[in-house]
Design a protein that fits this description.
101 residues, alpha+beta, two-stranded antiparallel ribbon, two-stranded antiparallel sheet, 36% helix
């Protein structure tokens, strides 16, 4: 969701390209995110969408599942501890742009 600012145009980045190309909504991140937790985020998000939730509600419900500790992933290191996915790093960077309803 980051981009460079152009006077009178606002932020110009990849989101804008997708929206100009016809995408109605783009979900992006505000920072670099971990692959495994992002895969879980997307699985839950699309599960909520499939159940009939609005995009914003699906994103909110997914974030709540992360916050409440309901999401777990397998540690990448054999003897490692699973990361605490309730930390905002894993869920707060996702944003919807465009028609977010």
């Amino acid at each position: 969701a980051r981009g460079r600012e152009l006077g009178g145009e606002g932020l110009v980045g990849l989101n804008r390209s997708f929206l100009y190309a016809g995408a109605r909504t783009v979900m992006s991140t505000l920072w670099s995110v971990a692959d495994a937790s992002t895969a879980e985020f997307q699985k839950l998000y699309y599960r909520h969408l499939k159940s009939g939730r609005a995009k914003t509600e699906a994103a909110r419900l997914t974030q709540r599942e992360f916050i409440n500790g309901k999401v777990r992933i397998v540690p990448t290191e054999p003897a490692g501890e699973p990361p605490d996915l309730s930390h905002p790093y894993f869920w707060a960077g996702f944003v919807l742009n465009g028609q977010w309803r």
